[in-house]
Amino acid sequence: MVLASLNQGQFYTTDGSGNIALMKRHAGWRKTWQLIVPGNFGGNDYTDLLFYDPTTGEGEFYTRDGSGNIAFLKKHTGWRKTWQLIVPGNFGGNNYTDLLFYDPTTGEGEFYTTDGSGNIAFLKKHTGWRKTWQLIVPGNFGGNDYTDLLFYDPTTGEGEFYTTDGSGNIAFLKKHTGWRKTWQLIVPGNFGGNNYTDLLFYDPTTPNTGEGEFYTTDGSGNIAFLKKHTDWRKTWKLIVPGNFGGNNYTDLLFYDPTTPNTGEGEFYTTDGSGNIAFLKKHTDWRKTWKLIVPGNFGGNDYTDLLFYDTTATSLTAPIVVTVPPANAPTIPQGFHSPFSFTPSGAPVIQWNGYTYWAYSYTDNRMAMAIVAYDAKGQIVKQWEKPGARYLTSITVDAEGKTITLTGQANLTTVLSWDELKL
Fold first, then answer.
1. How far apart are CA 24 and CA 66, in angstroms?
2. Which of 3, 100, 119, 156 is deepest in the core (most CB within 10 A)?
């Protein structure tokens, strides 16, 4: 079987109990996307996406359809290759998500609005910003109708709150000194139950275990301590906020890529007092997920997830391999064993993380059943292809993008590559 790591993007739904269900796998994505920003860029009911590639200075907007598919909206070239952060929010007052771009190489920030068609319009440029902001966290910290911002500088251990006004201007709200220089993540959410955005700070550098601290905010730039946790892993790479448990507070997904054999994910609920309650542990995840993006990708009441892997590779063409009987998956009822016709090993197709077997029917009809398996050996699709039976060989035509299945009496049936797309 081809490993699932051939798929660079995977969409999953969640169910409120910590379970996830695969919605769609995508292969052939760039391996150089640095940021994937969720927002309303297309105007439908699902979360759209902005992909940013600093190696080329390009951005691409895509819409979503609720079934795991993405549709290209607009490509932008000539963007800076030095944007470190792209922060979504309401900075312009229309119905679409606006964007703040931050460049630490120049200490500049630029606000843009979007229009629902993938276009962006310049709003305001700011110069003279610190070059050492590591995190810019959006939220409701000031109480107006626009998204406010928390800037965090680990070189000084300082945080600064700012409000925005819908025209690209920012207004200083409050400066905090004496913060830890070792906060790796600051996660916004509803952890305290007031009308303002609360914050979870995570520090992986403490001596024995990682630490997390919950704080509430008050609309004036002040923060109030809620709860400290001292028994967390030091190896959480990502902490993703969302509705994973169905209560009124923000839940959390923790992702650890360092566990021995596979990556692990753990879902927790929160209770409004800074406590977290374990929901579900997953131990069979990749160790190579770079980004986990929350959004409404499936249309239920819970937060869905996009997982993105930069290390995955995509096959440029289907390949044919011979699989011995010992490595065969379970053969569905109604089909002959393929090893009846090729005893030492059956030819199969592998492409983009799936393995395709061509079975012959036990009623001996002049057709083959194409059965697609995922990396876990689960059947994901099955269809009939007439014209030949009793497979003996498979050939791939890269120029014509076809696959020829040859069977008894050298009869053939032809698949297009598009038929294999899942």
1. 10
2. 100
